[in-house]
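writing this on my phone so excuse typos. first protein, seq and then structure
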Amino acid sequence: MAEASAGRRAAREARGRGEAAAAAGDPTAPGARARPCAFAGGACPLKKSHPVLGRAKADVFAFIDTQRGEHGVTRLCAVYGVTRAGYYAWRQRPESAHAAQDRDLQQRIQRLFQQHRGTYGSPRIHRALQAEGCAVSRRRVARLMRAAGLRARVVRIYRANPRLHRFYGQHPNRLWTRVATRPNQIWVGDITYLPVVGRWRFLAVVLDQCSRRLLAWTLGRTRDARLTRTVLDAAVRRRRPRAGLVFHSDRGSEYAAQAFRDRLRALGIRQSATRVGTPGDNAHMESFFHSLKAEVVHGARFGTERQLRLALRRYFRYYNHRRLHSALGYRAPVDYESRAA
């Protein structure tokens, strides 16, 4: 009887030690339950986030071949779990017809990737290749970009406001039930700020909602109604829209100012504004500014306002005439307008 009681007491103590070890994170302890591996900071599992881990050995060897000029082959093979003998055997094999096509495709992909300053991912590279008459699948393009270590520049843009907005409620949101079906039906506008040696410059732009074409832009040192009126007048001179055009913006004081409202009324333009606290109502402008900052501003340093203006002018020309837009069927805004005319 005493032996049975001691045995039950020992079993309870063992279970308690196992549960405590499991709570402490020991996966080998008795009572520890299998659970998904946690990654610091919520990072994705390595096989999903890395270009070659978890893929075929040929992909690993191809990736090592692109990196062997910067890192030792022995080290690369050890890191990616393959042997040096296997790598060199892969290099000595005669090139298959498929591998030769991959090599040629990779060169074209590299050219397009550099031509667009590292901003194109596999969907746009795929469309650019198709525009050149190259019949290739998107999955193949993605595989070759992974093997070459090519990844489009992506950056999170947190848009802070340098001063508080004062919101006005007298302008309805006219875009809730209206969709532009051709250019010059709906224009959208907004202001963002850009750094020049520690100081802000304010960029105001007007965009055609249908074609996504940048119609006008201006850069100023003061964020006020003069800035928004200047860029509006420039867009009107360039496009000469008919009466009834809708101009949509947020509810910032630059757009709610009496001088700006009077100018819209004189031009026969109807004003539309986002709902309070909902920047998503002006999603076209938010998307445009995100692309601008990710592709031009992030990581760059402008020593003078002139340098910033030159960079903006180059990018806006590229954006209108060459940059493929997914919402336009992967066409540039100018090309889209010419086909819609």
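second protein below, same order as before
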Amino acid sequence: MKKPNKESILIAGYISGFLDGYVLSQKTDSMNTLKSYRDAIVLYLSFLENEKKIHSDSLNADCFRHTVIEEWLVWLRESRGCSPESCNNRLASLRTFLKYLGSRDVAYLHLYLEAAQIPRRKCQKKKVEGLTREAVKALLDAPSPLSRTGRRDMAFLILLYSTAARLDELLSMKNSQLHLSDEKPYAVIIGKGNKIRTLYLLPKTVAHLKRYLAEFHGETPDPEAYVFYSRNTGCHGKLTQPAISKMLRKYAKIAHEVCSDVPLGLHAHQLRHSKASHWLEDGMNIIQISFLLGHEQLQTTMVYLDITVEEKAKALATLEDENDRKVSAKWKNPDGSLVDFCGIKRKR
């Protein structure tokens, strides 16, 4: 293998800096999101190496021109069978890296500007089906109050539905984020991008949480302990999403016998969607719902809830009224691949 040139080493350093520093400190602390960025970069470098025959001695700015990126998107779709949604997610991750690259060296800024003009793949809209109120009631009645696990699961499901929080937001919640003794009890939710929002809790939710905390955390809960924790790791190890998925399928099967509207393949996001829909049915303004859901853009909420044209106009009118008021020797890698040259550890 030829010795890498100066530009190859420079770009490899920027890739490492992006994944190992910038993403974690500036973009997200979610390991799932970090994995998404890493996967996109690995796929792009693999495409360059295997399809374009680019190696550590030939990696340069031209490898990130829009024409190459467009070929990569076709390769993702036709050779890897990626859906349009997956292609768009990969493209967004690559764009974020190119934006970072341009901010670190203006000589590369044009690459980001080119990539920003690449159109997203057309996707077929997928509507998330929520649950009816009767289905929600059947689901919340499914856990047994006679068992310790049942009481825990009941408290979790009630909190999940009543707050319409994202699953990871609840799994990452610590005791210090619950304020149940205040005049108006509330929970502090840390959402995407570490954005914080406050959600007030209804009396039924508060009652279940107090009983749960007393039973699972004792009289003086550790503020840094996870509210819902794994029995295997203790209170400083949170429950996993696969564990919650298994739990939801268990109770969905029980609830389905009572109400056929409960889907057997129930997933957590359906409860979030259901609560948002019920808020809308109860007359809550879309702007309020958008805040409670932690959406950065109002349009996201409108699409999320499949809002009609008339409802969109009404919400926008209300919004208008309110507005008025250092690089390591990366050529010394074990297999000589472009991915290893750029310092990316493969996830197996």
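Residues 60 and 272 are 45 Å apart (CA to CA). thats all i got for now
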